[in-house]
Amino acid sequence: TLAQTESNNLSTVTVTAGKAGVWGYFGEFCSTGSQLASDTTTSYTCMFTDAYANNDGVRLANGTQITFDHVGKYNIQISCQLINTAAQIHDITVWFRKNNQGDVGNIADSASFVSVPNSHGGIDGRLILAYNIIEDVLPGDYVEVVYAVTNTAVSMQTIAAGTTPTTPRSPSIILTATQV
Fold it and tell me: How confident is the model over 54-87, as pLDDT tens digits?
């Protein structure tokens, strides 16, 4: 906020910084590879291949760990390009895990269960899963995206850019984390 006062030919401008108009920390990540499950009794951690060059305070470690450098409350959003190559509908569950503490690290109420359409007319079934959570973090905390499938025909896959019409590539997963 700005405030200006004037008296005796003297003008004073006071600037007060608050939450409004101040950028929080953020990070954006995606994967141009596929996320493939080899069995239905195991959970898998999503790998990320790319990080936005101007990320600030949120970074990628070890290919899977979205790591926070500053304490805060963050809105963590994902978008997954789901594919089903089977002739039947199959399910995938996607959730968040914090600080790789196994099942204990699963973030409560963060799972989404999705039925992915079956292949039809020679075309794989496709669906976008998008959702977000708000999570409190400390410096050094990290979040991972975890998934499990009911059939290995379900995966997250990158779809190549189109040519007619020209369209951008669709990464297998996109994640953004923004301080709120």
Answer: 999 999 999 999 999 999 999 999 999 999 999 9
Q: Give pLDDT, residue 18.
A: 46
Would you list the DSSP string of 12-62?
EEEE---STT----EEEEEESS-B--S-SSS-EEPP--EE-TT-BBEEEET
The pLDDT confidence band at residue 2, using thresholds 50, 70 and 90, is: low
Closest CA to 175 of 77, 70, 38, 31: 77
Give Cα separations from 140 to 1, 66, 72, 164, 177 (angstroms): 33, 10, 12, 45, 14
pTM attached to this predicted model: 0.86
- CA dihedral 73→60→45→50, nearest 10 degrees, is 120
